[in-house]
C-alpha cells in the first residue's frame, strides 16, 4: 500500500514516514502544495496524509486538484488547526477523515487502514476471491485452509491485483505501487517479473488457481 505524506514540518514528516515504513507501507513525501500536486497528478496513492497549512498555499487546494482530476485517493487531513470550518471545508472537498495534531501513531495507522478498507474494499478487512482469502489487518493469505508465506512485496502485489480485479494494470502502475519514487530509477521490470512469478508459484503450490493473466504489451489482469 502506498502513502503520500504532505507535510512541511520535515522532522514530523520523517517521523511519520519512518513509522509507516515499519508498518510495511511504501511512503513518499511532499513538503509543499506544488510538490504535492505534481505527485498526485503523476501517481495514485492508497491514502494521502494532508497538512492544510503549507508554505506555498492552503492544503485544501490539493484536495481541489484531486477532485478536479477525478482522483479517488483516500485523504486524511492532518493539521494543528482544529476548527470546525477547516474540518467541514476539507470533508466537503472529498477528504475521508480528519486528525488533529498532536496524535498518536497507532491511531494514525488505524485511521489509514480504515480509509483504505472503505475506499478499496467496501470497508472490509478481509478480501475473498474464490479460494483465496486475504486478511488486510493480519497481513495473511490463505488458499482454502492453507496459509501461504508471502514476502511483503508479494503480499502488496496480490492486494493490488485483487483491488483492481478484472482490470488491466500496467507494469508502470505496478512498479510505482511497489517501489514508490524509486520506480523512476528502474530501467527494467525484472523485479516485477520476479515477484509475479514467485506469487503465482506460491498460490498454485498451495492449490490455488492461476488468476494472474499476462496481457501482452499492456500488463497484467487478475480474473477468472
The amount of beta strand, in percent, is 15-25%
For the biggest sheet, the summary is:
5 strands, parallel
Helix content: 40-55%
What is the average of the pLDDT values? 87
Shape: elongated
Question: Span between N and C termini?
Answer: 24 Å
**What's the gyration radius in Å?**
18 Å
Question: What is the total number of structural domains?
Answer: 2
Output the CATH class name of the largest domain: Alpha Beta
CATH superfamily placement of the largest domain: Response regulator
Let me know the number of strands: 14
CATH topology name of the largest domain, in short, is: Rossmann fold
Widest sheet: strand order? 2-1-3-6-7
* Secondary-structure element series: EHEHEEEHEHEHEEEEHEHHEE
CATH architecture of the largest domain: 3-Layer(aba) Sandwich
Enumerate the spans where pLDDT stays under 50 for 5 or more consecutive residues: none
Instruction: Note the total helix count.
Output: 8
Task: Name the structural class.
Answer: alpha/beta
